[in-house]
Design a protein that fits this description.
By secondary structure, the protein is an alpha+beta fold. About 15% of the residues lie in helices and about 50% in strands.
């Protein structure tokens, strides 16, 4: 049996929501081992002068909980 932990991560990009999601996963993987999946929870954007200037994607990152305090 496997227990999975889920953490919310917000990624940002000046290009797209997809790039923002990729950035969230890439950055999370620097400190979280064994990411097994993600779920896109929310997409928002910063707007200036009627134009989107920053895309933001909130993702839930899933990874197994390791026994023994690891």
């Amino acid at each position: 049996m496997t227990t999975v932990k889920i953490v919310k991560v917000l990624g940002t990009s000046e290009e797209s929501w997809d790039d923002a999601a990729d950035e969230a996963v890439r950055t999370a993987s620097e400190t979280i081992e064994g990411i097994t999946g993600v779920e896109v929870e929310d997409k928002t954007a910063k707007v200036e002068d009627g134009e989107i200037t920053e895309y933001k994607t909130t993702v839930e990152v899933a990874f197994p909980v390791r026994s023994g305090g690891q």
